[in-house]
Amino acid sequence: MSQTAATTAIPQQSKAPTGLALFFYRMGKSFQTPTPYLTILGIFLWVFTWWLLCEGLRVDRFDKIPGPVAVSKDLFSTTPFQGVSIFTENYWNHIYVSCWRIAIAFSIATGIGVPLGLFMGWSRRIRDYAFPILETLRPIPILAWVPLSILMFPGFEAPVIFLATLASLFVTTLNTMLGVDSIDEAYFRAAGCLGSSNWDIFKNVVVPGALPFIFTGLQISIGVAWFSLVAAEMVSGDHGLGYLIVDSYMNNVTVPMVIGMITLGFVGWLTSVMVRMLGNWLMQWHVKALALQGR
């Protein structure tokens, strides 16, 4: 048999799916496991418990909270009784303003926190300068910064963005530093023996080795940014989901308050998923390693 015939006789391996095809492939595989069905069951049990306490049994104190039926009626109504639904421009404006503030705050926190954490993990001298300052400021609650931020920054936007950035910055920086600390010393010795410069070691060992911790920190960071943002909007805001929640409470309209809380949870979950997807795309080697371990 000729070499050409032998080559054609060997079945060629099909290419692994990538991009959108990989997304749908993973989605299809996930429905062959109990995970999505348990997720749906968990959501159903949560909504059922909510309905039972607020509208079914009308348990004392819970009967003052709008149940899922009352919230759904207003949320999907073209003429909502308490003024907020998916058909009102005001609702989408609050979401847009909060998302825009989070995008700015998260970008600033990532742009400062990731390099600072990398250098703190890489250089003992930088860590000795910066770590005590971070550890002193980190335990201070975000609400304690509100009066100071209003004095430091003019208007409504800057104080809110500052507070969300500050909370996110600590998480991003410390997780990045821990990521560098987690790298095995053998990699640094091997790179040094092969003649790598400090910049080569930083670029090819420190940054890739810390990426799993960085993206874990970013997922936590964006969640922290959301609840810090909402707390800031409640005190120093004129728009946004946090402002919607506290304004509804002050005006004694409870349905928009619950709508704002549910929307906040959904949007926050969506942004966390986006960060996770970005991390998986940038760390395909890590995803494959976890897949081989069955995780």
Features:
single chain, about 300 residues, mainly alpha, MetI-like fold, globular
General description of the model:
- Helix content is 78%, strand content 0%.
- The relative contact order is 0.10.
- The chain has helices at residues 3-9, 19-30, 35-56, 68-75, 89-122, 124-137, 142-152, 157-181, 185-193, 198-236, 241-250, 254-282, 284-292.
- It is globular.
- The protein has a single domain (82-292), classed as Orthogonal Bundle (MetI-like fold), CATH 1.10.3720.
- The two termini are 45 Å apart.
- The longest helix has 39 residues, at 198-236.
Task: Write a concise synopsis of the structure shown.
The protein has helices at about 5-10, 20-30, 35-55, 70-75, 90-120, 125-135, 140-150, 155-180, 185-195, 200-235, 240-250, 255-280, 285-290. With about 300 residues, it is mostly helical.
